[in-house]
Amino acid sequence: MDYVLSRNCSAPVWPYEESDEYGFIQGLFGMMRALFCRDPDIFTSIQSGQSEIQQKADVSISRLCFNLSSYLYFLVTKKSLKLQVSDSPADYRTAASQQPTLALLVSFLGSLSTALERAAEEKYLLLNKIKDINELSRQEVDEIINLYGSQDCASSSENIQKRRYIAMVSMCRVVGQRSRLIMLLLLLAQNLMNIILGHFQDSHSMKVIAYDTRLGTKEGLHSLCGELIPVLERLELLSEEKTGHSLRVFRRLARSLKELSIQKL
């Protein structure tokens, strides 16, 4: 599925048609709505005894969301798709109006900021524990193995040196998964910010909102910006040291979008 999504993001296999009320595009919009409203725990759901397959599923879900957001970005920038500020009143809802709204993207961006903060903090703490692995007590080592390791490869009767090794390998594996996850979440958040920024920079779209209640209202736009600004401020505060990525371009984008949002309040 990931391959199909990424392979065809800009291909004519998925042409956008305004009249395509029940087609494949509407199915993709429905998938976006379903995934973009999920709890941030879906991205950082490492639990005690969780299988490696399930941990990899976190990354796969993020990749799927990124591919969907890339296609949405393509529709907005290349096919002039205009998203509503929020869901229309029931009188206006039709099968063709299943596109994700700007309000949904802002809400999802908030979830992504939470997921990024958690993943970056977890990665940072694990790297510090790996550095200090020889200083950790047996109790701390056992807790790490119980949380991140496979119970099949560890026995409580093993000496502390071997258990430290098992704990270190387990943490390195999780750090690698978290690094991939952080990269995908950053790219996903960047896509969402670019989509919202494109709407804010399009003066025609903003004028239409003032006259067409199907796209939204001025009050709805003000409320949207009020929710967006604190999310962008959180994204600006992400640490390069903890994420392991250069955030110069990312922060510049967040700052530009925040400035536009403030202007529209």
* Overall average residue pLDDT: 81
Number of beta-strand segments: 0
Question: Total domains, how many?
Answer: 1
Sheet with the most strands? Answer: none
In percent terms, what proportion of residues is strand? under 5%
- Rg over CA atoms, rounded to whole Å, is 22 Å
Globally, the shape reads: elongated
Helical residue percent band = 55-70%
Helix and strand content put the structural class at mainly alpha
Q: What are the segments in which pLDDT stays under 50 over at least 5 consecutive residues?
A: 1-14, 210-214
**Quaternary structure of the protein:** single chain
Provide a brief overview of the structure.
The chain is mainly α. The chain has one domain.
Can you walk through the features of this model?
67% of the residues lie in helices and 0% in strands. The protein is an all-alpha fold and 265 residues long. Helix 4 packs parallel to helix 8 (218-236), helix 5 (138-148) packs across helix 6 and helix 8 (218-236) runs antiparallel to helix 10. The chain is elongated and about 65 Å long. The two termini are 40 Å apart.
Throw out a few tags for this protein:
265 residues, Nuclear pore complex protein, 10 helices, 67% helix, disordered N terminus
Q: How is the secondary structure organized here?
A:
Layout: H1 2-7, H2 24-36, H3 52-78, H4 102-131, H5 138-148, H6 160-201, H7 203-211, H8 218-236, H9 240-243, H10 248-263
Helix pairs in contact: 3-6, 4-6, 4-8, 5-6, 6-10, 8-10
Protein name: Nuclear pore complex protein
